[in-house]
Amino acid sequence: MAEGEKMRNGAGCSDAACGSSPESRKNFSAKNTIDDSVIKSVCALAQLELSQEECVRVRKDLEEMLDFTAQLGIPDLEGTEPLYSVYPAENVFREDEVTNPDRSSEYLCCAPSQRDGMYRVPGTLVQEL
Amino acid sequence: MEILELTALELGNCIRKGEIAVEEALDAVLSRIADREKELHCYITVSEKQAKEQAEILQRKIKNKELTGPLAGVPFAVKDNICTKGMMTTCGSKILNGFVPDYDAECVRRLREAGALLIGKTNLDEFGMGSTTETSYFGPTVNPVRDGYCAGGSSGGSAAAVAAGECFCALGTDTGGSVRLPASHCGVVGMKPAYGAVSRYGIAAYASSLEQAGPLAKDVRDCAAMLTVISGKDCRDSTSGAGEKVDFLEGLTGEIVGLRIGIPKAWFADGLQEDVRSTVLTAAESLRRMGASVEEFELKHTEYVVPAYYTIASAEASSNLERYDGVKYGFRAPGENLNAMYRRTRSEGFGAEVKRRILLGTFVLSEGYYDAYYLRALKVRRLICDAFSEAFSSYDLILGPVAPSPAPRLGESLKEPLKMYMSDLYTVPANLAGLPAISLPASCSGDGLPIGVQLIGRLGGEKRLLNAAYALEQSRKSERKSEQI
Lengths: 129, 485
Hints:
- The structure holds 2 protein chains of 2 kinds.
- Chain A has helices at residues 3-8, 22-26, 36-46, 52-69, 104-108, and strands at 114-115, 118-119.
- By secondary structure, chain A is mainly alpha-helical.
- Chain A has a two-stranded antiparallel sheet with strand order 1-2.
- Chain A is flat, with a radius of gyration of 23 Å.
- In chain B, α2 (22-40) runs antiparallel to α3 and α9 (305-320) crosses α11.
- The two termini of chain B are 20 Å apart.
- At the A-B interface, α3 and α4 of A face α9, α10, α11, α12 and α13 of B.
């Protein structure tokens, strides 16, 4: 399967599939990756809904940004470990003791809707109109 | 001397000596706000009543010697993505309009404990995403130096408030240059401490591995004084550094003989405006005259910093901003069911730039694309950090521009987001590598717009960084005095 086809099929883009040579990675175009189904899928993950006009604009923006970030495909990263944080991240532990007062009623004051000491939200299984 | 012409430390000194009352300083600031705020829009919230009540309390405590620190009684402002107890905190967004935290962020708590007087919350690009303070739900901030121009961003409100005399100093946050860039555009000093130097507890997260709260002030000494107060370990932020409290005012001598300073050649490529280039080269000459050695060098991987930054920052943003769903606080849109409520709340509550970055971040983290984009960006981040480690084996500090050009006109940058992103070229490396960096005013463009220069230090090198910035600042002051004579 050609690399462009892999992307159009939403089969993702592994590091290898984006091009095995710096040259092919340099020529990578996001126009092969971002189609309506990708936008729909990303919006669903992000819990966002876009108007038709926004979809067109977002698609163009994402294509431009991904073409721009495709430069990251150029350097040889064999043997390089990812750097998640410059600060050495270690889990912080403490004794399992309650050390803070119960302020739940104060926190509930910020809520758009509450009842009986709980956050009140629409039902999960109600059909959309 | 006019009260508003004083620096924060000068004011603090006058207040301690009884020469100026806290209420006087507050009145001067409120009067300036009344004069200029309508035109500049530095603030989202000004808490005049709270500030007046607090001023009385602080005056009494200072008189009784209960508060003796250098910033006691000094009016300051806080960027509106930093939580302040009892004061609205919106992050410049509709989705948090009306949200009032019931706690102070740690950096705010420390400043209040030191006796500084909080007067209000400053405008910002929504959730810190932007370089011009134009994406705020509440409207843009205007550059106080020249009408019609941006204040820079995302801490544009804080920078403009300091520049306009609407506060004596302010807090901002810097994820990719958001303290340094507006400082440069508004002609004030702005510092991003090293990652971990200041607790992020109570700061609305945008990109957790990149951001730091930092001071904006009229001069380097004021920045050092603020950093002294806000820095240090906080058990509620596991990324805040261990180690003893440091007094950053100590050691500000201006002595820089023997300091080795490098200027990355790659930062002087096409795209850098001529007056910015000459400003940096003039600063280099001043540093040389004071005994530092300054030379150009090859800094590797500069072409990857902006794409790496925006990939990582967007990915982290997409995760951090998941919490804004209309359930526990902030804006809620109606929905027939829970998912509809989530989608409509977020779609109506976030602005275009925030949505753009969330979508990019979601994409690069999604199955099938994670390795090619996000993981690669993290590996490139390591290359960039290694490049800086290599640079700091030969140099003590790095000198460079803050931005390719002075402040743009209002409305210009939003038309071309990618071009706006590229303007972060000189600032994002310090965030990727977790390094301390400072921007200080160095000259003005032909149009009268401020131009800053940037110094970057190695990890743990804030004192040396501040001292070099102080030396450069003092040198510029002497040169300007000589010109006037």
